[in-house]
non-specific serine/threonine protein kinase
Amino acid sequence: MLVILLQTTASVTMDGYTVHNVVGEGSFGRALLVQSRSNQETYVMKEIRLPKTQSKMENARREAVLLSRMKHPNIVSFKASFEGDGHLYIVMEFCVGGDLLQRILQQKNKHFPQDTVLKWFAQMCSGTKHIHDKRVLHRDLKSKNIFLSDKGTVKLGDFGSACVLNSAKVYAHTYVGTPYYVSPEIWDNQPYNNKSDVWSLGCVLYELCTLQHPFQAPSWKSLIMKVCRGSYPPLPPHLPYELQYLIKQMFKTNPRDRPSIHTILTSHRVARLLQSHLANQELQEERRTGRWRIEEGEKVASMLGQKTLMTASTMEDPGLVSREALCEDSRRKQWVPGPSNTALQVLANADLLTSGSLAPTHPEVSDEDPPGKTRGRRQWDRSPPERLLSLLQKAQLSTAFRTYSIHRHGEDPLVGPLSPRGGDSTDGRMEVEEDMTVDEDRLEPRSDDEDTDFEEDSPCDWMKELEQMSTDQVT
Ligand SMILES: Nc1ncnc2c1ncn2[C@@H]1O[C@H](COP(=O)(O)OP(=O)(O)OP(=O)(O)O)[C@@H](O)[C@H]1O
């Protein structure tokens, strides 16, 4: 039971923890620095206002349940949780180094040493692999939700969004303001899947390399367009080839072509570099938890209310469900053979781009192919993207998203913590894209389909809602 005692020293005791001070405030509550009275250790206690409705209450409790199930050196560890006074309290490891966003901002314009970037990224991948192995999608991976311990170890935190943020609209709806980390498939109303987390991690990796967000724009149209084209400013040339190549792969616009975390850690070109940065005990942890049992996955999935699960490509154990068996689940939305690019096509047809064709038809050498080898490119699906096209003609995206976004202290949702100042938020303006990397090869498929192993249906159709809004505006 929760006990709140106001002591003479003005410090507060809650369920065996003495509250020292407030670490920070989020949209759902506060983070408090507390000390356990039993072991004198310092922890962070998240105080979350419990919503009134039962279903929302269950969502709020998920963070505690999920965190309690994740035991990994690169995930913020769970200590306890309890409820009282209309709040949920989650006690967790205190990460002295704060969050990665703060750390990036502290750098001013000084780049991180390469080894630091590789070490942190390797640890992020290790933590993400752990949750993916448990069939959980983080859904809100960003530098603000990744923490640093006193030993400089990276820890993934904030599982409050796992299974809650499930559409572009919901992303736009959050306090974050700008959905910098939202992948093309989410804008395209496709299901969130494990590769969507990979996209977000790619954004964090890019931030570590450049101290900038990869995708930022003065307008919603422009932002969506850039994300759907995978178009970002070039990386500093001093970065090793492996990192440049990895970022390019992580920003493949079709999730099928993006490597999974398992691929990145085991068979990607960068794997050896990353593995060398993972401590021995973490490597052992990887080996120990590298395969998941279906019972464990099912338990977590049923807790999350997930309907659709696919098997991991790494399964070999007979105790695990076969991929074919799960593929028979007819409810699962399938990715089309080419890139999923409805939103991209619509935006392109809406004459928003100054650059050339999105559908190169000439055969080209892939960086996966040996020198001299050529292959035919797969074609973009050119069917008329009627829906978003007509939507864009009718609706002002900035107006629409203004309705969805909760602005904090009057902040412009399109200006993020790592954005240069000075953009505007009108729909029509497209900044000159001349220093953007528009690498056609990145738009081409390199199937990693066997690794797009689980996903969730997107229950919300943001385009439909925008259509409705524009109809309402006319009438
Ligand atoms: N385990 C932790 N160790 C150290 N600092 C933490 C920890 N958890 C959260 N914080 C810090 O506490 C502050 C508030 O965190 P909290 O998660 O409540 O909100 P937020 O992430 O800022 O916003 P939101 O919850 O709306 O996403 C942030 O500055 C965050 O960096």
User: Anything to note?
Assistant: The chain has a mean pLDDT of 68. The first helix runs from residue 54 to 69. Residues 23-28, 31, 44, 46, 76, 92-95, 98-99, 144, 147, 157-158, 175 surround adenosine-5'-triphosphate (CB under 6 Å). The first strand starts at residue 4 and ends at 6.
